[in-house]
Design goal:
11 helices; 6-stranded mixed beta sheet; BUG
């Protein structure tokens, strides 16, 4: 894949989805400015400066209770329990798929005392909203975990494999409505459509506000199939109310006994990964220290317990490997939005 990274302030190469209407763009800008000003004040007061082992603020770019927030708070608990950082605080800055928080982080140039949890959805949001600030404008530190996705149908659905479902989908794309818990799940469905030979523009996707709403859409028959995080669907699969047709991965996942998309002939591996970023312009010494803090955190037993509890998959990347991964993901996600006609 070609490298889609670009210097701050320049436009990325390759196709981008159409810009939003002027009214929508103005509304988002006003909202981002209002929230961003307040958030910036919170960040500057929370970050005391000085020794990174003394005080660290972790931004969760969404409201409390979601995946980014959970990741940030598990890091906080681990760092406190292990004495990795004396005082770790979590600051929630919700809005616009994580791009408001990203803009705030970019405004803290040279201040390493604040880092941000990010991930696939935030990267997608920068493309979807044609964000003026993108991940390349801040300092990448690591990816640490990924939430594995699954493809599910109701238990009495007449499909025993992903190919059974794909065959019906190819025959009449509109007759197989899909759902999912957010924009990331729609990207997975789009990727599945391409792999199955279905034009994404012709597919029916019912947008749901979170995994719970998507589950209800399957149970009440509004949707035929769904993609979602394994933790959200695990109990329904084990209780026999859902039938799982695939785990979205390129290789079998330990602890999840179901066939993967790839081994069934569908080259779909998009995962909901969690990343960590620092402000731009920090020193190499501070970046190295932040990476060391992250590595100690993910090696701690408290973090390993969280990984098991949430059925996360370890996905640690640093340095050049991380840079290449983020560039490839940006290219893939931009291509999916283009295929959707967005």
């Amino acid at each position: 894949m070609s490298d889609t990274r670009h210097p701050p302030g320049s436009e990325p190469e390759g196709p981008r989805p159409p810009r939003r209407t002027a009214l929508t763009a103005i509304g988002l800008a006003v909202s981002a400015g209002a929230i961003g000003t307040a958030a910036y004040g919170s960040i500057t007061s929370a970050s005391g400066g000085g020794d990174l082992r003394s005080s660290l603020t972790i931004i969760a770019p969404a409201a409390a209770g979601g995946g980014w927030d959970t990741c940030a708070r598990e890091m906080q608990a681990t760092q406190r329990a292990g004495g990795i950082v004396n005082n770790t605080q979590v600051l929630n800055i919700p809005g616009a798929g994580g791009t408001i928080a990203l803009g705030n982080l970019a405004g803290l140039a040279g201040r390493p005392e604040t880092i941000m949890v990010g991930g696939t959805g935030q990267l997608a949001a920068t493309i979807q909203y044609d964000s003026s600030v993108v991940l390349e404008d801040v300092t990448p530190l690591a990816t640490i975990v990924a939430e594995i996705g699954v493809v599910v149908v109701k238990a009495d659905a007449p499909y025993e494999s992903l190919e059974d479902l794909a065959a019906a989908w190819r025959e009449d794309p509109a007759a197989i409505p899909w759902t999912g818990g957010g924009s990331f799940d729609q990207l997975v469905v789009t990727s599945l459509a391409i792999a199955a030979g279905v034009d994404p523009v012709e597919m029916t996707y019912i947008s749901s506000d979170g995994g719970g709403e998507a589950i209800q859409a399957i149970l009440n028959g509004t949707a035929v199939a769904a993609t979602g995080g394994y933790p959200d669907n695990k109990d329904l699969i084990e209780s026999g109310r859902f039938k799982s047709l695939a785990v979205v991965a390129d290789a079998p996942v330990e602890g999840i006994d179901m066939p993967t998309t790839v081994e069934q002939g569908f080259d779909v591996t998009l995962t909901n990964w969690r990343s960590l970023h620092a402000p731009p312009g920090i020193t190499e010494e501070d970046r190295a220290e932040l990476v060391a803090i992250i590595q100690e955190t993910v090696a701690a037993p408290e973090w390993q317990e969280a990984v098991e509890r949430y059925s996360w998959m370890r996905a640690e990347r640093y340095g050049e490997e991380l840079d290449a991964f983020l560039a490839a993901q940006a290219e893939e996600i931009a291509g999916l939005y283009e295929e959707m006609g967005a």
